[in-house]
Amino acid sequence: MAKWEKTDVNVGVLEIEVDESRVAEALERAFKKVVRDVNVPGFRKGKVPRKIFERRFGVESLYQEALDLLLPEAYSEAVLEQELDPVDRPQIDITQMEAGKPLLFKATVTVRPEVTLGEYKGISYEEKSTEVTEEEIAEELAKIQKSHAELRNIEEGQIEDGDSVTIDFRGTVDGEVFEGGEAENYQLEIGSKTFVPGFEDQLIGLALGEERDIEITFPEEYHVKTLAGQKAIFHVKLHEIKRRVLPDLDDEFAKDVSEFETFEEYKKSVVENLEHQRAHEREHEIENEIIEKVVAGATLEIPHVMIEQEIDAQLNEFGQRLAQQGIPLDAYKEFTGATTEELRSQFMEDAKRRVKTSLVIEAVAKAEGIEVSDEAVDLELQKLADTSGLPFERVKEIFLARDPGFINLRADLQMRNAIRFLVEHGVKA
């Protein structure tokens, strides 16, 4: 039996009563578990009668074990009975635990906030052309042309922007070589901005076999604190210059990079791809424009714990991205000097936006009765199976292992369907 009373906007107290018969059953289960490890003279381990056990240790010695058995069950039942949607672990306060009497306890619960939607149908969005200009087509072709350029050694000449060069360098600060400041046969693309600002620019014009001293100043926010803001001199020797030679945009090029026989056919396919990409981008822009207006029109108060949970998730994602680059999160914090608290603070505003958006879209789905059928789940799993090349049943098995009941997948599909609903009911401005 449970009673729910709200004490704040998103917080309330569940008063829960568990009858004495269940308490007695839990105490018996607790005894059978605890007695296995109890030594009492005259009895084999695990064979001590309960009366003797309680006389020696007291029935109170079973209370914590019995509570560990009772509380999760009773709390879950009360949440279902009162149709609550908790977003955090409850704070439990035991008010009565005694053999032969009901268990009484209170659970302070933070619940998912109520969302008051504003207008969400008929939201206007700006109509924009998805036409691709000749300039954009030329830029795309130039990008493709550059990606298929051949790097050739230059026998004589000077470094130009875009060249790939092989150099030796030795950097000093106040006449002393610093850690990581020297290398031999180092390959660098001029204009890539992978080196300290100012270094690559000063290499332009350097001739093959020539040596040059380059003076730079490390940025104030440089990740190596001992070098931040310091002036350094790099002695550089140039060994090799490789320069990109662009292929001609002709029929031979089209045959080399595509299934088309002529450049005109290939160009047409490039334009079609650009148009498709532009239309896809515009779809996302419309979605974002409508979602922003719907979210701005909604009223809700987000529990702080939900924001903290989202920050946890974002910080975890950030750590995984760093790990893929071979950089542990702790090492990143050491390089940058950033604390965990500072990183969490950086994620704060985005976390608030994400949580609010998610809650508002959920509220739209609820208001419109948007549900996700088993058939829709299977269709999504089939798409993933087709993409991955794995059998459908194997994909289903993998998802079930990490997402029991497809709860997260259903939530994601529901979110997508709700956004599609908003766009379908939007109005061009």
From TrEMBL:
Subcellular location: Cytoplasm
KW Cytoplasm (keyword) present: yes
EC category: isomerase
Domain (PPIase FKBP-type) ranges: 162-222
InterPro entries: PPIase_dom_sf, PPIase_FKBP_dom, Trig_fac, Trigger_fac_C, Trigger_fac_C_sf, Trigger_fac_ribosome-bd_bac, Trigger_fac_ribosome-bd_sf, Trigger_fact/SurA_dom_sf
Biological processes per GO annotation: 'de novo' cotranslational protein folding; cell division; protein transport; protein unfolding
Enzyme Commission identifier(s): 5.2.1.8
Reactions mediated catalytically: [protein]-peptidylproline (omega=180) = [protein]-peptidylproline (omega=0)
Keyword Transmembrane belongs to the record: no
This protein's GO CC annotations: cytoplasm
Annotated keywords: Cell cycle, Cell division, Chaperone, Cytoplasm, Isomerase, Rotamase
GO MF term list: peptidyl-prolyl cis-trans isomerase activity; protein folding chaperone; ribosome binding
Coiled coil: none
Function: Involved in protein export. Acts as a chaperone by maintaining the newly synthesized protein in an open conformation. Functions as a peptidyl-prolyl cis-trans isomerase.
Family designation: Belongs to the FKBP-type PPIase family. Tig subfamily.
NCBIfam families: tig (TIGR00115)
Domain notes per entry: Consists of 3 domains; the N-terminus binds the ribosome, the middle domain has PPIase activity, while the C-terminus has intrinsic chaperone activity on its own.
UniProt name for this protein: Trigger factor
